[in-house]
């Protein structure tokens, strides 16, 4: 198709303008979205088909076949097998929740150790006094 060099070709006219550039891109972007009413109708149709299939499955299980027998189908869902690791993790999470943070900071840990040592020393001194008291009253017989 050859076009003579002296003629001009127009893509759009004033009566029917053709969108170009960013206006065209914006229009394409806006058209890419589906309106709410169309989407709602489509969803409604899909859900109706789904409900019909579910009903057909339920009624199909109770209808007798050509021999007159009703096929019994187990409709219960199988329980998910819990892995041993998952159980251990669950227990550990419960333990962590129940545990209280006793020594959150390192200085608290040192302080508790010092308190424990002080209690041991105090107990030792009390035992020493009691032994000396028993010796003086001659009730202490180590052998």
From TrEMBL:
GO biological process, one term: rRNA processing
InterPro entries cross-referenced by the UniProt entry: RRP7, RRP7_C
GO cellular component, one term: UTP-C complex
Region (Disordered): 49-101
Bias type Basic and acidic residues, positions: 49-60
Gene3D superfamilies: 6.10.250.1770
Listed Basic residues bias regions: 90-99
Top-level lineage group: Eukaryota
Segments forming domain Ribosomal RNA-processing protein 7 C-terminal: 31-143
One Pfam family of this chain: RRP7
Family to which the UniProt record says this protein belongs: Belongs to the RRP7 family.
PANTHER family: RIBOSOMAL RNA PROCESSING PROTEIN 7-RELATED (PTHR13191), RIBOSOMAL RNA-PROCESSING PROTEIN 7 HOMOLOG A-RELATED (PTHR13191:SF0)
Protein name (record): Ribosomal RNA-processing protein 7 C-terminal domain-containing protein
């Amino acid at each position: 198709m050859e076009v003579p060099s002296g003629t001009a070709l127009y893509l759009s006219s004033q009566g029917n303008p053709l969108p170009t550039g960013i206006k065209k891109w914006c229009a394409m972007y806006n058209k890419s979205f589906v309106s709410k009413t169309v989407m709602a109708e489509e969803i409604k149709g899909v859900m109706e088909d789904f409900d019909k299939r579910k009903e057909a499955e339920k009624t199909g299980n109770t209808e007798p076949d050509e021999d007159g027998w009703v096929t019994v189908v187990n409709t219960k869902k199988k329980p998910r097998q819990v892995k041993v690791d998952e159980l251990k993790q669950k227990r550990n999470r419960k333990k962590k929740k129940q545990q209280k943070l006793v020594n959150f900071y390192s200085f608290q840990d040192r302080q508790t150790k010092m308190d424990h040592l002080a209690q041991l020393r105090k107990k030792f001194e009390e035992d020493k006094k009691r032994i000396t008291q028993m010796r003086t009253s001659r009730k202490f017989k180590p052998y």
